[in-house]
């Protein structure tokens, strides 16, 4: 399995949203209609989505024990505005939290977080600790102590920096 494999279930939506912004280059996929389309966003709704994105990134940093990368609206405050319903499958009685009427992005993200909490996967969706990166990734390490989006990229860079610091 590749290190960049998508997180399970609906958390893939959260990861995809957080990773619409490349912090290193400043490139923002939500600036273009093609980039907004997968999230059902328009130019008008992209603003709140950007706020949601950074609140999510701060929560994913917190999962790895890091403080927020900048001041954000607390994620819980945003998600509290998301209308959700409890759905029950008549076939097997299984229940889940779902967005109302297939809802706006905020509700879909709230449902994804709720699903991740139930599945025990939410805490493993993290943001890379490298300040120029903070990319969202799913930590598949056995102990759940992953620190970087990719050992090959950010992990190697951090190791190289430490190595140089020792040599100096
Ligand atoms: Zn990284």
TrEMBL record:
InterPro entries in alphabetical order: ABATE (IPR010852), ABATE_dom_sf (IPR023286), Znf_CGNR (IPR021005)
Domain Zinc finger CGNR: 124-166
PANTHER family: BLL6575 PROTEIN
Full protein name: Zinc finger CGNR domain-containing protein
Organism: Streptomyces pilosus
């Amino acid at each position: 399995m590749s290190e960049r494999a998508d997180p399970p279930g609906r958390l893939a939506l959260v990861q995809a949203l957080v990773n619409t912004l490349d912090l290193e280059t400043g490139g923002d996929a939500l600036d273009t209609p093609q980039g907004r389309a997968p999230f059902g966003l328009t130019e008008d709704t992209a603003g709140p989505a950007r706020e949601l994105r950074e609140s999510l990134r701060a929560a994913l940093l917190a999962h790895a024990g890091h403080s927020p990368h900048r001041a954000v609206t607390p994620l819980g405050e945003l998600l509290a505005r998301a209308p959700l319903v409890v759905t029950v499958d008549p076939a097997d009685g299984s229940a889940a939290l779902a967005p109302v009427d297939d809802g706006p992005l905020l509700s879909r993200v709230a449902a994804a977080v709720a699903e991740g909490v139930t599945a025990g996967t939410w805490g493993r969706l993290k943001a890379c600790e490298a300040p120029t990166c903070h990319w969202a990734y799913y930590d598949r390490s056995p102990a759940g102590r992953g620190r970087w989006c990719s050992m090959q990229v950010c992990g190697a860079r951090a190791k190289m920096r430490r190595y140089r610091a020792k040599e100096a």
